[in-house]
Amino acid sequence: MISNDDCSTDGKSLHHNTGNKGSMRTVRVGSRSLPMYPLVIVCLGLLNTVLLLAAVVIGIYSGGVVNEEDPSHHITTEVLLTEVMQLRIMESEANKALEEVQKDMKIEMQTYQKLEQQIEPSKTLSDDLQRQIETLQVERAELQASSSDISDSCGRCPSGWFLLNTTCYFFSNSETIPLKTWPDSRADCIMRGADLVVIDSFEEQVNIYDFLPKLSRGQPWWRQGVWIGFTDIQTEGTWMWVNNVTQPDQGYWIHGEPNNDGTLGEDCAVTVKQDNPTKTWNDANCEELKKWLCEMAPNN
Hints:
CATH superfamily of the largest domain: Mannose-Binding Protein A, subunit A
Radius of gyration: 59 Å
Distance between the termini: 160 Å
Low-confidence stretches: 1-23
CATH class of the largest domain: Alpha Beta
Order of helices and strands: EEEEEHHEEHEHEEEEE
Oligomer: single chain
CATH architecture of the largest domain: Roll
Number of strands: 13
CATH topology of the largest domain: Mannose-Binding Protein A, Chain A
Strand content: 15-25%
Number of domains: 3
């Protein structure tokens, strides 16, 4: 509040004469009176500072507006907007194409499922027919083998035997005949008036190879095979046929055989039908149970 009143202390006036200009004005702030002119100067200084800051801000803003109105800036923005629009159009077209592909795939899948449903009964029928054909083929082969035995042997071989060239053979390939050890197999052959087969020519080796059935997939090859009359029981490493004839050459051993494997050794030979007819012999433990092959001379 501005006051023109005079305040005195100790009877003296606080007025200061300024010549012809009169007394100094004061401003009361709370319980104190301050000179007015210095305050006015301070206020003007603050106002000038605010105006300066405002001018700076306006200048910066104006510079930004000028830059925004730069033609090159407008060109860049337009190019970007155009590219964005093109990308959106491409995206839309790609989505449409994807939808079409999905529709086509759905139609194809439905068609495939219908065909599969139609084919399934035919496939089942085909499988049944295939099994019947295989059964008939086996029966035909058995009948042909039986008739061949009768016609070829012409009574020269006993019943159940077959004739190959000039030799009668008996193969224990029957579910009614149990597997035997090598000694028992030889005893069975002797009981039939024969002995375990002696392979003394390449022609006989090939004939036996062609006759024997293929290996079973149910067990490893070295567990399979058919007993033949070949052994080194008397002298380890010296293989001899049951007719007391030693093998004149290396024979038809599988690669790596004979190896006398195992703690009990392997002193009896089997023939195994693998891929190579010249590599079929393998040594095995004589007490293993296997099929066997007998031979005898035909009747005159």
